[in-house]
């Protein structure tokens, strides 16, 4: 079976090859009835332009770069990518993930970026770029859109949750139950590029002070890493040991991510702490593990964040002016069985 060519479509539609090209690429100067006839014949003959041919004709690559820290399989990254792909694929864009594990990876991406027009736009997730990289982004002629980025500098648009406001809601909730507080950051080796843990810890401390907590009422557990201990259980055993040895043991623990809160919850119970009778635990994200262990947590929706980022990107690519370039989407506290009032 021979491959259908543009000439076959032109012959079937009774028009020139150039008319078929203009009609299928959506260009002006094509009669609507002619365009409809060409599209009908192209569909009947199963003809479509190759991406490379379309790119040469339109000046677009039809590719979007998605810059992700550390791994595409993490809960936030995978769901945000899914949201981006859902929107972009319907607009005939290819979505290309760029995974950054090390500082060298990130430096290489930026070194090649200004002179390498192999994408039409960039969507980045949660990166806290230095000033030099923000300057590079700001000088690009292609749209750059952020997801949960700590700064708008260098970005054309973005969508994010308000980490500080979410932490304030958690602190006020724990205070209403009468708890003394502890905050635990992500205690395993996290990406050095993700800024959410720093923002959440600051939001927690600021909210605690606003709620009248003194320094003696708040415990911040220094994060342990795989460099400090032999295995994951040792990490969480070390955290529980720090809580047990604190001058004033906390009754309400906030953990920056569910991925750390769930194993901590398991270790607390293994060490004899009753949850929630002895201590309440609140996570952050509402990933699937939180519902499995019935844990109170702060809900966010990374899939919707990805969709919104993609829609903003498409609008910028179409030359539109965004009414709201930078959007903040809401989070919500999901109450489950790991929290209760102090007895």
From TrEMBL:
<dbReference type="GO" id="GO:0000976">
    <property type="term" value="F:transcription cis-regulatory region binding"/>
</dbReference>
<protein>
    <submittedName>
        <fullName>Transcriptional regulator, LacI family</fullName>
    </submittedName>
</protein>
<feature type="domain" description="HTH lacI-type">
    <location>
        <begin position="4"/>
        <end position="58"/>
    </location>
</feature>
<dbReference type="Pfam" id="PF00356">
    <property type="entry name" value="LacI"/>
</dbReference>
<dbReference type="InterPro" id="IPR028082">
    <property type="entry name" value="Peripla_BP_I"/>
</dbReference>
<dbReference type="InterPro" id="IPR000843">
    <property type="entry name" value="HTH_LacI"/>
</dbReference>
<keyword id="KW-0804">Transcription</keyword>
<keyword id="KW-0805">Transcription regulation</keyword>
<dbReference type="Pfam" id="PF13377">
    <property type="entry name" value="Peripla_BP_3"/>
</dbReference>
<keyword id="KW-0238">DNA-binding</keyword>
<dbReference type="GO" id="GO:0003700">
    <property type="term" value="F:DNA-binding transcription factor activity"/>
</dbReference>
<dbReference type="InterPro" id="IPR010982">
    <property type="entry name" value="Lambda_DNA-bd_dom_sf"/>
</dbReference>
<dbReference type="InterPro" id="IPR046335">
    <property type="entry name" value="LacI/GalR-like_sensor"/>
</dbReference>
């Amino acid at each position: 079976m021979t491959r259908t060519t543009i000439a076959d479509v032109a012959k079937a539609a009774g028009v020139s090859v150039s008319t078929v090209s203009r009609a299928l690429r959506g260009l002006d100067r094509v009669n609507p009835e002619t365009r409809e006839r060409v599209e009908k014949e192209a569909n009947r003959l199963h003809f479509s332009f190759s991406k490379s041919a379309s790119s040469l004709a339109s000046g677009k690559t039809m590719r979007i770069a998605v810059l992700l820290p550390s791994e595409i399989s993490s809960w936030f990254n995978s769901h945000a990518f899914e949201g981006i792909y859902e929107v972009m694929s319907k607009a005939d864009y290819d979505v290309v993930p760029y995974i950054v594990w090390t500082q060298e990876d990130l430096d290489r991406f930026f070194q090649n970026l200004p002179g390498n027009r192999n994408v039409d736009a960039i969507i980045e997730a949660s990166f806290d770029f230095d000033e030099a990289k923000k300057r590079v982004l700001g000088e690009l002629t292609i749209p750059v859109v952020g997801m949960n980025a700590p700064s708008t500098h260098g970005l054309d648009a973005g969508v994010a949750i308000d980490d500080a406001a979410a932490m304030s809601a958690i602190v006020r909730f724990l205070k209403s139950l009468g708890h003394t507080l502890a905050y635990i950051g992500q205690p395993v080796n996290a990406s050095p590029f993700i800024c959410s843990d720093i923002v959440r810890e600051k939001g927690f401390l600021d909210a605690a002070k606003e709620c009248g907590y003194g320094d003696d009422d708040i415990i911040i557990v220094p994060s342990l890493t795989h460099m400090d201990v032999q295995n994951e259980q040792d990490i969480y055993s070390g955290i529980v040991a720090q809580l047990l040895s604190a001058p004033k043991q906390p009754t309400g623990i906030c953990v920056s991510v569910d991925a750390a809160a769930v194993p901590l919850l398991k270790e607390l119970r293994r060490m004899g702490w009753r949850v929630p009778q002895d201590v309440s635990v609140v996570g952050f994200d509402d990933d699937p593990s939180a519902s499995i262990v019935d844990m109170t947590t702060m809900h966010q929706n990374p899939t919707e964040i990805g969709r919104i980022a993609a829609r903003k990107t498409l609008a910028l690519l179409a030359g539109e002016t965004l009414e709201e370039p930078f959007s903040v989407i809401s989070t919500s506290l999901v109450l489950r069985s790991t929290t209760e009032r102090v007895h």
